[in-house]
Every structure is written in C-alpha cells, then in structure tokens.
Design brief:
Helix content: 25-40%
Strand order of the largest sheet: 2-1-3-4-5
Number of helices: 4
CATH architecture: 3-Layer(aba) Sandwich
CATH topology: Rossmann fold
Shape: elongated
Number of strands: 5
Largest sheet: 5 strands, mixed
CATH superfamily: Response regulator
Length: 125
C-alpha cells in the first residue's frame, strides 16, 4: 500500500508525541515526516515537509487551538488533528470555502455591475 498520508507530529509533551508516534508509525498508508518539539518551529517544519496533516496539542477540549487558524490560513489544503493528553479528547480541523451564487442580468449593464462589485469585494454582484 502506498503511503499517501503525510503527517508531521508536533504534540507536546514528549510522552504524547511518543504515544501518537506509536499509533501511526507502522501504518502502511501513513508516512511520518518528522517530529517537532518546539511549537515555534511548526511553521518551518510544515514549509519544509509539506504534510497532509499536522498533529498538535489540544490544550482545552472546548477551544480551538490558536495555532489552527493561522496555520489553516497559510496552508488551507492541510488538515490538523489536535490531541489532548489531559482531557482524553481530540479535534480534527480543516479549512473550506463556500461557493455563493447570485443571478446576474444578462446584459452589458449586468456584467459591468457584477465586475464592479467584485472589485469592491462585494458579496452580492
């Protein structure tokens, strides 16, 4: 089986990283790209390894880690699995976008109005 899931493990503490590694390292479809000990090095490691998924620490089960939003804005194709050692829970995060539509009059004026709304960052052309 081809290893088509590329994972970067960036959990803390070390014991949690070891547990995560023990779970995934022998999976035939998962390639572990490396471990990150210092949260400040996660961006550099992601840029260097280009993972499909990064596993980070989940500090609170009811809160999205601050790091998630920044990473998903920078790497929208990547997924994030946040795992908590203390609370026994995990959360999966990914970015998506919505496609909106609006009827545009089939005329010169309709086309120009739609284009001008795009230039103005308008929601409804």
């Amino acid at each position: 089986m081809e290893k088509n899931i590329r994972v970067l493990v960036a959990n803390r503490p070390r014991l949690m990283r070891d547990l995560v590694m023990a779970t995934i390292v022998d999976q035939p479809d998962i390639e572990v790209l490396g471990e990150v000990e210092d949260e400040g090095e996660i961006r550099n490691a992601i840029q260097r390894t280009q993972p499909n998924c990064v596993i980070i620490a989940l500090d609170r089960a009811d809160e999205r880690p601050v790091l998630c939003e920044a990473l998903l804005r920078e790497y929208p194709q990547m997924k994030i699995l946040a795992v908590s050692a203390d609370e026994g829970s995990s959360m999966f995060f990914w970015a998506s976008f919505n496609i909106h539509q609006h009827q545009v009059e089939a005329s010169e004026q309709g086309v120009l109005t739609a284009l001008r709304r795009v230039a103005d960052n308008g929601v409804n052309p």
